[in-house]
Amino acid sequence: MSVYCLYGLSCDTAFSTWNKLEQLKPLRCCYHIAWLSLTYALYLVDFHNTMNSNLHSDRVKVVSDGLTVVNVSQSLLTREEACSVCQDIKNLEQEADEASKTLANALTKLTNAKTTANYAHGTILGKLPNEIISLIFCATWDAMEPSLPERSDGHEEPQEERKLSIALILAGVCRRWRAVALSLPQIWSDVHIFLHRQIGDKALAILRDIVARSKHVDLTIRLYSESVSGDKTRNRELQLALAVLQKESARWRSVQMCMPY
Questions:
Q1: Residue 1: CB partners within 8 Å, gap ≥ 6?
Q2: Are residues 166 and 144 in contact, defined by beta-carbon separation less than 8 angstroms?
Q3: What is the pLDDT along the chain (261 residues), one digit of tens a residue?
Q4: Beta bridge partners of 191
Q5: Rounded to whole angstroms, how far apart are CA atoms 164 and 175?
Q6: This model's pTM is above 0.85
């Protein structure tokens, strides 16, 4: 009878159960089977009660260092708790979006403030109106003469492309100067390209950009290339460059090409 008391039964219940088993003594073999079956059943009931008790126990505890630890291995989240977690995630996502927008606005304001500071502390030239800067750019470009060609490796080739260089330099100083330079098609009218100095299609891309920046102004074209004999890649690049220039033939003021074979 002490076995049943061990599984949490009261003494009266255990005694009643024992008497019932005593009545089964005439059934010698069945007595032991019934006793074992009842013992196993009581064990299962006790195990079930223990699991239910653990299921509703606290799953959150605080360790010695003050950190909160969630023990999810003991039980699953209820539907209400799961919905609460989903709502927390949604709230955090909204907070993250708001923080991103706040950061973007702050960066925009910072950029504008720096631009204003640069203008306030800039040089006299930086405070000139765009019309005056445009006149200065055009006068500088007109003063530059293309370098004379010289003999090199059996063909003529200028040492540098001065007019195009000055346009590129003016457009690379700052954002304002770039906008002014790109608004002046005449300083891009000197198309001066060395196909053999660029890698891949870079020379062709530069040629297309310069032609586009010149808009409807007459063009002075200087195109140089090394020998393309037997080189299919170079020959293809040359053909594409000539096709770009051919489309603008109505704007040709002068053309100089050096393409030895």
A1: 14, 15, 17, 18
A2: yes
A3: 444 444 444 555 555 655 665 565 555 555 556 556 666 666 665 655 555 554 444 444 444 455 444 454 444 556 666 678 888 888 899 999 999 999 999 999 999 888 888 777 767 777 788 899 999 999 988 887 655 555 455 544 444 567 888 888 999 988 889 999 999 999 999 887 777 666 667 778 888 898 999 999 998 888 877 766 667 777 777 788 888 888 888 998 888 877 765
A4: 221
A5: 19
A6: no
